[in-house]
Fold:
Amino acid sequence: MNLGHESARTYRETSIKTANPIKLVVLLYDEAIYQIDTAIKSFEQGVSTYDKINNALGKAQDIVTELTVSLDMDQGDISQNLFRLYMYVNRVLSDTNLQKKSSEELLVCRDILQELRESWLTISENPPQMPISNNQPGGIDIAG
Structure:
């Protein structure tokens, strides 16, 4: 591996390890969109790229699944609506991957994820203020 690739990998790993939870969601959207773009470009290149399409759509599905399972369903309509969108996107990714149809429906999924990404990016730049109880230390309990 050359120095440029190693530096990029190290920078990416550091960005992920130091990101707050909201920024991590944005990074997940970025990667899902990147993988869908890879699949779309591969569709344009023809049949010989089915392995590349399969890999890209599989990675995108894994990311959307991770976003789905991380939803807090106690948050009401927002979580339920996101759940429905994620299920739709995952179904299209799966169907497209299995049937090797075309990239048209992938563009719709990409647009959905891009719009959601922009919303999460806005939240990450202007995070809501969380009230901190005087009896509890501040911060997020990531232990479960």
The CA atoms of residues 95 and 101 lie 8 Å apart. Confidence is low (pLDDT under 50) at residues 133-144. The chain is about 75% helix and 0% strand. The radius of gyration is 18 Å.
